[in-house]
Design a protein that fits this description.
By secondary structure, this protein is an all-alpha fold. It is 68% helix and 0% strand. Helix 2 (67-93) runs antiparallel to helix 3 (100-108), helix 2 (67-93) packs across helix 15 and helix 7 crosses helix 15. The chain is globular.
């Protein structure tokens, strides 16, 4: 009979042998505890996109090389210019409005002012009391009647709000790392949300309406009383209303385009929610918005300058047969050929303008996703996908066989 060992040998957990020695119990290298110091350095560093998220905006440049989107924007621009010229001609024939020649010069020779007016970068007060950049614009703006301005505003919103929302979705999908979306699928997506875009556009004016009514009542009461003491008594109220109205209108210059982008990118958009997102990004993230906006403007300028060089080179090819003396004198003096060459040149020079407007709208979608990540922490890749196209129901072969067997049994 053996006595128990008074000093049993205990094995510590550290020195204990691994009793599960089968291959199924061996630890894989992917599940080892602690960092793998033997892994290459390149597998543990972050990409440039993670360090500088604003570099995602460079992906939007792919839109500038898409023929279908350039053609889409150019056609909208031509239709807008044609209808604007027709309205100007009708208004001028009735004794009001801007002459066609002056209206054309406002669009072709001053594309910067055209873009600012087109996307409502001026408030209602500046439209009523314009302070243009050039004397030519000043002389033309003074001839604009209120009816003309209203008609042009409705025309601009009708044509450019759906175009802006569609291009903003294209730019947002590219920034999110998706492929170039389909033209038909993108427009189908936008058409289902278009009425929300129009409602969002007029919301800032609706928000300003109560304060404008207060200002109007104060003004009328001052005229009726005719006493300066009433003016000084209502001055704090007047200043408060004016500051709030100015803040709403100033922030709307970027909040409305960002709201259009929100309607185009979110799964279940709401006009008020989209507009509040735009105001939040404008007011709470103003330094980020300005910094990213400057980078976007530089990219847009470079791409527009490249297309301007293309248009200039192509226009030189157009005028070469006339100015270079290749053709004979009789054909060189042909007015039909000269007018056709001028029209072609004008169309070519509109291509850089359309590319600039197209990139500006597409950049809005990318800026919205980057600012959304900064404000709420939502990932840039989190965008609403287009619903898959509905496929027609095709009966299976088994269904046909079962049906034939049941017919035979009957």
């Amino acid at each position: 009979m053996t006595s128990p060992d008074p000093h049993p040998q205990t094995t510590s957990p550290i020195n204990a042998p691994n009793r599960q020695t089968g291959p199924e119990h061996q630890a894989s290298p992917d599940h080892q505890a602690g960092p793998d110091i033997e892994a290459p350095l390149a597998s543990r560093i972050r990409t440039w996109i993670d360090i500088l998220p604003v570099m995602r905006l460079l992906r939007v440049c792919r839109v500038a090389g898409s023929p279908i989107w350039i053609t889409n924007t150019l056609m909208v621009l031509l239709v807008w210019m044609g209808l604007e010229s027709l309205i100007a001609a009708l208004m001028s024939s009735g004794g009001a409005g801007t002459p066609v020649s002056v209206s054309r010069s406002l669009i072709v020779s001053l594309p910067a002012d055209w873009i600012l007016e087109l996307f409502h970068w001026r408030s209602a007060s500046s439209i009523a009391n314009p302070s243009p950049i050039t004397p030519q614009l000043a002389s033309a703006a003074t001839k604009l009647s209120s009816t003309h301005v209203l008609i042009l505003t409705v025309l601009t919103l009708t044509l450019w709000v759906p175009t802006w929302m569609t291009l903003a979705r294209v730019g947002g999908l590219l920034v999110a790392g998706r492929d170039m979306p389909s033209w038909t699928a993108t427009w189908r997506w936008t058409n289902g949300r278009l009425w929300r875009g129009y409602v969002l556009t007029i919301l800032p004016a609706v928000c300003c309406l109560p304060m404008l009514v207060v200002l109007r009542v104060v003004g009328w009461s001052s005229l009726l009383l005719g006493e300066s003491i009433w003016y000084w008594a209502t001055l704090p109220l007047t200043l408060s209303c004016l500051i709030v109205v100015g803040l709403i209108l100033a922030a709307a210059k970027t909040a409305v385009p960002l709201g259009w982008a929100a309607l185009a990118m979110e799964a279940d958009p709401d006009p008020m929610d989209a507009l509040s997102r735009g105001y939040e990004m404008t007011l709470r993230r103003l330094p980020q918005l300005v910094g990213m906006g400057v980078i976007a403007i530089v990219v847009i300028g470079l791409m527009t300058a490249a297309w301007w060089l293309v248009a200039v080179s192509a226009s030189q090819v157009v005028v070469f047969p006339v100015d270079g003396g290749v053709l004979n004198d009789r054909f060189e003096r042909d007015a039909t050929w000269e007018s056709a060459a001028l029209i072609t040149q004008s169309l070519l020079m509109l291509v850089p303008v359309s590319v600039g407007a197209m990139l500006a709208a597409a950049m809005t979608g990318g800026l919205y996703l980057l600012l959304r990540q900064s404000t709420g922490g939502q990932e840039v890749e989190d965008v609403a996908e287009n619903p898959p196209p509905s496929q027609p129901r095709v009966p299976s072969v088994q269904t046909k066989v079962d049906q034939s067997e049941s017919d035979k049994a009957d």
